[in-house]
Structures are given as C-alpha cells and as structure tokens.
Amino acid sequence: MESQDSSQPLDQDDTVKEPPKKQAEIESGDDDEPDETLAERLWGLTEMFPESVRNVTHATVVSTQAGLKFAYSFSRSALWIVFSTSIILFAPVIFEVERAQMEELQKNQQKQLLLGPNSAISGGVPPPIMPPMQQQR
After folding, report:
1. Is residue 128 a contact partner of residue 120, using CB atoms and an 8 Å limit?
2. 133: DSSP letter
3. What DSSP assignment string belongs to 9-25?
4. What segments bear the compositional bias annotation Basic and acidic residues (predicted)?
C-alpha cells in the first residue's frame, strides 16, 4: 500500500508555494525613481523660499567663511610672532640660569673632594648657634 501512495501525484496542498509577488512589488515601488543625493534635495528645497531669503543666506554663509579664513590666518601669524619672540627673549635667560646652576654644582663637587662629604651639604660654613636667652625678672 505504501508503494501506491508514493506513486500518486502530489496534491495541491503538498506543493511548495512561492511568496506573492505583489507584496514584494509594493515594498520596492520606490526603486523606479532614481536616488537623490542630499545636495540635490537641499537644492530642491530652495525653491520654496523667496529670492531675498536665499540671497541673505548666501551672503551670510560667504561672509562667515571669509571671516573664519581671516581669523585662522591672523591667529597663525599672531602665534608665530608670540612664540618666536618669546624664544628669542627668554632663551638667553634660560641658558644663563642653567650655566649658573652648573657652576654652583661644580663648586660643590670641588668642596666635597677637598673638604669631605659634609662640607658640600652645609656649604663649608657651620650654622650659627644662638646664645641661650636670659630670663628677665
């Protein structure tokens, strides 16, 4: 009996059904129109504003751009002047301070070699001792 059941044609309920094409067409209905870029959409929106608003907006954008370029250029020049001047003015001072520190270090090393390790720390001169204070009656 089983062999007879397997030889029979499949019923309509047993067939594999394909998804309906109409639903897929409805969902992808926007594919017929070409894709717009953001710039194209913004350009299309300009038509809804009057000419005076567009001119004022354009002038504002252009002047803001020019102002930013000027501010950037001015800040670059100002920073160059400030930093180069400070280096020229303060570099000799820094070198002199470093030279003085090195001379002091060399003097301390010479004292340590000649007089012993304790002389360089104290500077060679013992600290002054205060006399005891007298009590007043």
Report:
1. no
2. P
3. PPPGGGSPPPPPHHHHH
4. 14-25
